[in-house]
Design a protein that fits this description.
single chain; 257 residues; alpha/beta; Rossmann fold; four-stranded antiparallel β-sheet; 10 helices; 36% helix; globular
Length: 257
């Protein structure tokens, strides 16, 4: 359903993506892991067409979106729903208005119909009776759920998750993971999540891709990634400061007394 071929992107002298290749099958849950600043969010923005690559192609259902005009790209984007890292709710809108925001643009529905659909999607993510609240009245976990309800409101074929568990305690993070799995089961969507949370990656992924030094250096099932012999991947998944991955701007000194 999604194929990325030799994707390159630089910002000035900084080369962020240096030849990314990745294929995501229809109905698959793909998780892309990598350190901070590795280019995960940049990759996600290319997939949805927010950024244009310097080189390479991105195919969505065999359509090369890198060569589309803006109005053509707009039609492809209708296939996508996205859960943003910090939920990205509009503070001045009620919960149901946030959930129904995209429906005002994509579908010819009146306010009553949009609110009814928003309430339905909120119940789907385990939130009943909150539709008239403001975002400021919600906890972090509830905001994530509202963001997910908004992402699925127009019944997309592809869901993108930008660090879905960031800022949540372990219990709430696991609840969001369960919700992501449930969305895949109920809606049969293709999913791509980016994260550095290995607990989340192992739980929600059919396959995991490791982004390092601008490239995908390994792809495999959660079990295959857990048992990898690649020293870079092993350092990342175990969270060790020692290994081939250098921590930028940090030097360690050992003192023996």
């Amino acid at each position: 359903m999604i194929e990325i071929r030799n994707l390159h992107k630089s910002f000035g002298a900084k080369h962020v993506l240096t030849g990314v290749n990745l294929r995501v099958e229809k109905g698959e849950s793909m998780v892309v892991i990598g350190g901070s600043g590795s280019g995960k969010s940049v990759l996600l923005k290319h997939i949805i067409g927010i950024l244009k690559p310097d080189e390479g192609n991105i195919l969505i259902d065999d359509i090369n979106i890198t060569s589309l005009k803006e109005n053509e790209l707009y039609e492809v984007r209708k296939k996508f729903g996205m859960l943003f890292q910090m939920s990205a709710l509009f503070d001045s809108m009620t919960v149901w208005e946030n959930v129904g925001f995209s429906l005002l643009r994509h579908k010819k529905m009146n306010e009553k119909e949009i609110k009814s659909l928003a309430v339905e999607k909120l119940r789907l993510v385990g939130l009943a009776g909150v539709e008239d609240l403001m975002p400021s009245e919600l906890s972090g976990g509830m905001k994530k759920r509202v963001g997910l309800a908004r992402a699925i409101a127009h019944e997309p074929e592809i869901l993108l998750y930008d660090e879905p568990t960031t800022g949540l305690d372990p219990i709430m993070a696991d609840a969001i993971n369960e919700l992501i799995i449930e969305m895949k089961r109920r809606l049969s969507v293709t999913s791509i999540a980016i994260t550095h949370d290995m607990s989340s990656a192992y739980k929600i992924a059919d396959r995991i891709a490791v982004l390092y030094d601008g490239k995908i250096i390994e792809t495999g099932t959660p079990d295959e990634i857990k048992n990898t012999k690649n020293p870079v991947v092993r350092q990342f998944i175990t969270g060790s400061a020692s290994g081939p991955i250098q921590i930028e701007g940090v030097q360690y000194e050992r003192t023996f007394g």
